[in-house]
Amino acid sequence: MSDGLPTDEYTKLRETVFSTIWNELDPLEHQIEDTEKIPYDVVLPALRACGAFGLIVPREYGGAGLSIAQYLPILAEFAKIQGGIRAIVHVHNSFAHALSEIGNEQQKQEILPGAAAGEKSLAFALTEPGNGTGMDLSTTARRDGADYVLNGRKWLITNSDIASHFLVLAKTAEKQLSAIIVPRDAPGLTITPLPETMGCKGAEHGELVFSDVRVPASYLVGAEGEGFAHLERALEISRVFIAASSLGTATRALDLSLTYAQERVTFGKPIAERQAIQRYLAEMAVDVYALRGMLADIAAKWDRGTRVPAESSLVKQFGLEAVGRVTDRALLVHGGIGYTRKYPIERLYRDARLNWLEEGTPTIQYMVAARELLDGYTFDDAFDSLPL
């Protein structure tokens, strides 16, 4: 929960970040897509200089301390450009924010100031190649004196190539999941890249192998057995961030389609004058407008200290469906030329598909939302007080 920056400070920060996005980062799109590598020597200094790594790190640890309502439009703007860059920003900020809420003071003092400056970065290590994401996890953390000893495998770990610390979910007992911080340089930890991805090129989603990795017991987050609760807390707001990413991509696709429809002429008139194209554009606008409203509602709730366990899954699910529909229609508006790299549409189309998978697949979102509703969850908002 954060009150955020005063309006004048926020406006200045937002302008600085937006300038970096469009003047320094967006021009790198073709280089990254061609090489499938992010030029970290250019991207990371640019992100550090504009303050992108400390956006939602609390001010007492050197960050900007933005409220969620202030952060979402900035993340959405990142989602309009090359997707690998967006992934870096999203993962870093999501789990820096999570540590600020679930970590103890020693852990926060050790990691968050560096994270805010972009000198350290935290990634989440949950997914495993042979298991789901619950009690069937096979990675273990055994207490041995003043240390924990970890063994197991994790994969599809975003930012695995640049993270300085990993927040690892492991079993500390047969039916007990715990969250433990593991430094990148811990002996016995091996990090290897996985094959290139469909979209969000350049963002690394690697594999971690823990072979008797020993870390101090002080790196346990909370108490043993609290790992699943920490996971839910971290994923709850991170799913909202994914929805904001969907909004940014969808908004860019709509904007490009509006421009193209007015420029493209067939049979002597712009295709924007054709009813079929107008229908596509209006349908795209419905999704963008609805997603903006959902995100505004959730951000207001979170910023006043209200948990959003059902809303986060619902908005994540709606967001991925919305950006899927919008990018589908954007491709139809652009026609065959949209399937080429002349316009960013084909990249936006590919980049958006990662949103299906980040922070849980659609089946997980439906399950979480339904579970909350069946347990009696109700939506906390002011709608019922409107004079309808």
Structural notes for this entry:
The protein folds into 3 domains: 7-120, Acyl-CoA dehydrogenase/oxidase, N-terminal domain (Butyryl-Coa Dehydrogenase, subunit A, domain 1), CATH 1.10.540; 124-224, Butyryl-CoA Dehydrogenase, subunit A, domain 2; 228-377, Butyryl-CoA Dehydrogenase, subunit A, domain 3, CATH 1.20.140. The protein is globular. The longest helix has 37 residues, at 227-263. It is 50% helix and 15% strand. By secondary structure, it is α+β, with helices and mostly antiparallel strands. The protein has a 4-stranded mixed beta sheet with strand order 1-4-5-8. It has a 4-stranded antiparallel beta sheet with strand order 2-3-7-6, covered by helices on one side. The mean pLDDT is 95. It starts with 6 loop residues before the first helix and ends in a 14-residue tail after the last helix.
Record the SSE blueprint:
Elements: H1 7-25, H2 29-35, H3 40-50, H4 68-78, H5 83-102, H6 105-117, E1 122-125, E2 140-144, E3 147-158, E4 165-173, E5 176-183, E6 189-192, E7 205-216, E8 220-221, H7 227-263, E9 265-266, E10 269-270, H8 275-303, H9 309-334, H10 345-352, H11 362-374
Parallel strand pairs: 1-4
Antiparallel strand pairs: 2-3, 3-7, 4-5, 5-8, 6-7, 9-10
Helix pairs in contact: 1-3, 1-4, 4-7, 5-6, 5-7, 7-8, 7-9, 7-10, 8-9, 9-10, 9-11
